[in-house]
Amino acid sequence: MGEKLSPLGEDFSFIVDAAARIQGVKGLRIQAKAGMVFTLDRSNPWILGPQAFGFSRRVLTLFPTKVLENNFHHHKKSVDMKKDKINDRVAVVILAAGLGTRMKSDRAKVLHEVNGIPMIRYVVETANALGAGEIIIVIGHQAERVQATVADHPRLKFAHQAQQLGTGHAVMCALPKISDQIESVVVLCGDVPLLKPATVTHLVADHFIDGRDVTVLAVEVQDPTGYGRIVMGSDEEVSGIVEEADVNETEKEICIVNAGIYCINRVFLQAALEKLRTNNSQGELYLTDIVGIAHDQARPVGVVLGNDPVEVAGVNNQSDLETVQAALQERSRKIS
To answer: What is the pLDDT of residue 87?
Structure first.
């Protein structure tokens, strides 16, 4: 039946609280009962499976990213990324076409530097560390400069997005570059330089273990303003992601937000992209809409919830850039 509950502590309380909020439950209390399956062992990496909360297993996986750097084999099932050749079956698409007008600069956003290194290089190194079979960068503004910035990574492919018509359109541009043998596509953002390889590895492992069509990385934030909200349906499944500009009054209160990082079955992705429409406040093709499409088709969708919003913070303006730079310096100080 699994391991018995270990002594509860602050970490457990935080996770329970986060799980309650994503379900829209207030004052949730969980007591130890026979048959609950999860491990809480502070000496090892640990996972709290959604079955511990009585939720559908494919809805939510909860983990502390800072612990996951050490190891993954304590996950709910054993997975060996290299032995099982999962990496070879994955392509990474990095979205790097935008100009970033809020940066108030004539330089493409992903070329802005964090600690003297262009942001895009941090993301490419994370993708390389994953050992993905293919890495495709979607370029647009200042395409040649972006390409030259990562030219020392010989395995890269490039897809050109001539017009920036949304994240869904960007991934559409990348699809022709993805080989038929690829099973799943990881989507990363070129303006998220703090993302750790361990987090992406866990996302991919969780996706394959549960056999999902879509797995979304999400975080809990105190102020969700500006973020897409993770929305649960009446069936207690992830039903969609609603962008800030389109949320209603109820959805505004949701504090579990989309990190903009996904693992998606390639065949489903190709079909879902054809169904995207621009009937939203921005008039764009949102990649986030594929979650709703999957839910409507009763396909398996899940959310992996990290505990470090700073790690997945995107850089949209100079203030964000300063925040990310300070966080990276702090991370480097702790390592040294």
So the answer is: 83
Contact 110, 146 (CB under 8 A): yes
260/125 Cα distance (integer angstroms): 18
Question: Could you tell me whether strands 184-189 and 256-265 are parallel, antiparallel, or unpaired per DSSP bridges?
Answer: antiparallel
Query: Nearest Cα to 39, choosing from 66, 70, 15?
Result: 15
* Token duo for residue 264: 């998606």
CA 298, 299, 304, 310: dihedral to nearest 10 degrees? -90
Write down the pTM of the prediction: 0.78
| 252: DSSP letter | G
pLDDT in tens, 87-108: 889 999 999 999 888 898 899 9
> Do 241 and 258 contact (CB within 8 A), yes or no?
yes
State how far the Cα of 19 lies from the Cα of 61, in Å rounded to an integer.
9
Active site positions, annotated: 102
How far CA 77 is from CA of 19, 38, 46, 63, in Å, comes to: 21, 11, 12, 14
Residues 187 and 190: their CA atoms lie apart, in Å, by: 10
Crossing angle of the two packed helices 167-174 and 266-273, in degrees rounded to 10:
120
